[in-house]
Fold:
Amino acid sequence: MAEHPNAVLMRRAYDAFGSSDLDALRDLMAEDAEWHEPGTSLIAGDYVGRDQVFEFFGKLFNLSGGTFKAEVIDILADDDRAVAIQHSTAARNGKTLDTRDVVVTEIRDGKLLNTQLFAADERQEDTFWS
Structure:
């Protein structure tokens, strides 16, 4: 059975993010995209608009010295959204991040629109990014 088109879209986004292909990632994301990052750390907050989402991605790389990685474990999708289970790793200031997260993304007209991250261990992520 073929993978749902929204799962394929999400995999393409992860591939673009992982290879730092920002042009490809920009093409996959709606101009009015949003990203919602839980917690109280330096990266927590609501990022509204594709430019702010890209600023958020820049924070991940800058604060981790380029070590942040998000590896897809699995993707579930339907006509309105894709849900990714990811393995996140990074190193920063002598600390390491090694966690699993769930990323829920609404999709409109074949573009990533509204993303909410759910951290498996929000305290660990807050400590790492603070």
Remarks:
- Residues 5-18 form the longest helix (14 residues).
- The helical segments are 5-18, 22-28, 50-63, 122-129.
